[in-house]
Amino acid sequence: MKKMFKLSLIMLLAFSVVLAGCGKKNEETGATGSEPAGDAKSSVKVGLVTDVGGVNDKSFNESAWEALDALKKDKGIEAQYLQSKSKEDYVTNLNKYVKGKYDLTWGIGFDLGQDMKTVADQNPDAHLAIIDATVDSPNVRSITFAENEGAFLVGVVAGKMTKTGKVGFVGGSEIPVIKRFEAGFKAGVKAANPNVEVKINYTGAFDKPDQGKAAAATMYNDGVDIIFHASGATGTGVFNEAIARNKAGGSKVWVIGVDKDQSLEFGDDVTLTSMVKGVTTAVDKVTREVIDGQFKGGSEVLGLKENGVGLADTSSKNVPADVLKAVDEFKEKIISGEIKVPEE
């Protein structure tokens, strides 16, 4: 019995030494468990505040969150979002991340501009960034887009492809960024076909699909066969109306998507093309600068020249080659400065 006890004790001590050696090895390499050495994750914390459209708007809020979600997987950052139910939530939501010592706080949408200015000035050591508005504070990075240039190109598509001679534009609120969409779209339509009529309808909201559906129904009833929307989640209603009409038979109607390739959400049968904005790319770029310790305030505008706006890569599914050729020709003229696209 004594011999067996001594043998067991020796084996236990030997096993303990082995465990200690393994633990020391992991500690020295900075790894734990079975994780490979050098797989350190970023300690950066990033918060994102949406406008009232919400993070699932199938538009620019969703595009922004997709960038941060990808960086969570790629760089191991901590990222969270808050959805604003009304404009009164903006300051509170921004301050949650700023007061929580987040390394970067994003605001998505023009409507957050003034409130971000207030929060930034009250917290000069905080780092903030915004999409679709310019905030004049040294600790804010402002990213805007030349939506009018991208909208001009989809206007060319609409002008060349309408069969009824009537196209429509459905906007959310009449704010500068959406007016740029409208102005560019109208200019593109007229450049492609000056005889085409462009009907305009502003719903006044970015989070009301029922209003988008009603606006689309009115336009389609009036003979419009292609609608370009720039209305956030309200645009879901525009798509729903077009889908219902196409299923019911009769004259074919189309929707031109916005901000991201909306054919991926609503399908090729109803999405003629989409005017995409590089929101995902911009959010990724600025956030990586924070991760690398290179954040700086200031503003930049991304247009056709910077590949900040353009047509979706899937456009050739529904847009004929000759129309896409015309789009490319207009694009080069805009980049060269031969064509100056109006902003309003």
Can you describe what's shown?
This protein has helices spanning 2-29, 60-75, 90-99, 113-122, 147-161, 176-192, 209-221, 235-248, 263-266, 279-291, 321-336; strands at residues 45-49, 78-82, 104-108, 128-131, 140-145, 166-171, 197-202, 226-230, 254-259, 271-277, 298-302, 309-311. The chain has a six-stranded parallel β-sheet, sandwiched between helices. Strands 7-6-8-9-10-12 form a six-stranded mixed β-sheet, with helices on both faces. α3 (90-99) packs parallel to α4 (113-122) and α7 crosses α8 (235-248). It is α/β, with parallel strands linked by helices. The chain is built from eleven helices and twelve strands.
Structure class: alpha/beta
Strand fraction: 15-25%
Largest sheet: 6 strands, parallel
Q: What is the straight-line distance between the termini?
A: 96 Å
Helix content: 40-55%
Low-confidence stretches: 1-38
Shape estimate: globular
Strand order of the main beta sheet, please? 2-1-3-4-5-11
Strand tally:
12
Kindly state the mean pLDDT as a whole number? 90
As a whole number of angstroms, the C-alpha radius of gyration is 26 Å
Question: From N to C, what is the helix and strand string?
Answer: HEHEHEHEEHEHEHEHEHEHEEH
Q: What is the number of helices?
A: 11
Please outline what is shown here.
The protein has 344 residues and is of the alpha/beta class. Helix content is 45%, strand content 18%.
Which terms summarize this structure?
12 strands, 344 residues, disordered N terminus, alpha/beta, single chain, 45% helix, six-stranded mixed β-sheet, six-stranded parallel β-sheet
